[in-house]
Amino acid sequence: MPNDDPLRALAHACLDDLDEIVEAFAGEMHTLEPYAAGLVPWHELREDADASFELLLRLTAGLPVPQRLDDVGERIGRRRAELGVPLEVLLRAVRTDFRVLWEALLRRVAPDELPTLVHSTVRVWDAVEQHAARIQLAYLQESAVLAREREHERSHLVARLLASDGRDGQLVSQVATALEVRPTALFAVAAAPTPADRALRQAAERLRSQRVALHIQNVEHRAVLIAQLPEGCGAVPIDWLPGVPCGLGPVALGLSAVPRAVRTAIEVADTLRPADGGPRTVVESWPHIVATRLADLAQALCAAVLPGEHALTDHERSRLLETVVVYLRCGSASATAEEVFCHRNTVLNRLNRFAELTGLELTRPDHAAAVIVALACHERAASAAA
Questions:
Q1: CA pair distance 213, 226, nearest whole angstrom
Q2: How far apart are CA 28 and CA 193, in angstroms?
Q3: Global pTM value
């Protein structure tokens, strides 16, 4: 053995006793979960260890590497990803190679060559790190592929759930398994208008980091969030979607109720206005939902309910409608006066003027409802014309 490089002869000695080294490594894995539980079949673990140690010994000693060992790292990385071995556990197992290999070398080195071997430690470690890097890269690449496949499968199942309206009990169970949720849990459902798609997805990523079980589904070119509510929580937590423009469906009582909640959330999302800087419920958005559904009747309702343009100047009409909008929202003449910066009596005079022009009393619920919807129709028409 050359005094300046004991590794080549030591590598040959270790290659002759490769079964012994593999058994030592397997013994280490018997104490490391999930290897100990047999997540990786033992025959497969030994075959991979045999190839890995041969590769490491050849790399360390500068021996030729046969073609059959070229893709050992890639094969191990991909396979461990398929089996669901956590990456940190995989890397711990790979770096165990160094200790097992080093101990094998120490058992075979002559005392007078020990200093030279110790000086070559970095060569052994570099070989292990090179092997670990290739395994890690292959693992991450395969994990990304598997994640896309799982996401595609989840999206396909959720699409079927939405199409079935939640009536297929077996499908509900399949979706629950795919999303890793309880089929009888409560679910929050939110839909984003296209311009707010990114904001909703960012909120979803933040919730994922908090271990919230959720799924983002593309429905009619919109992002829809379906998230399992925490145990004992009956409403969407206020810190889940702060500042995210989206329509909220009613809390779904189980996965079977999610399709109906999705339809509501999308309808609410379609009514969102630029000023709506956060989540909106069907209660908050109902006038605009009704206005949307009225279609061609909206113009007729506006003409029948709101003061005609001929009766007022543009300025008077704008000021009158502003006062009516605020009053209908807060229900108080005093609060309205504070918001529109005028005296309470001025507010009352404007409300009386509105009643004179339209014949509608805002203190009557049926009249107020008609005006609220007409104002929503008016706003939608103005936005479309802008």
A1: 9
A2: 54
A3: 0.71
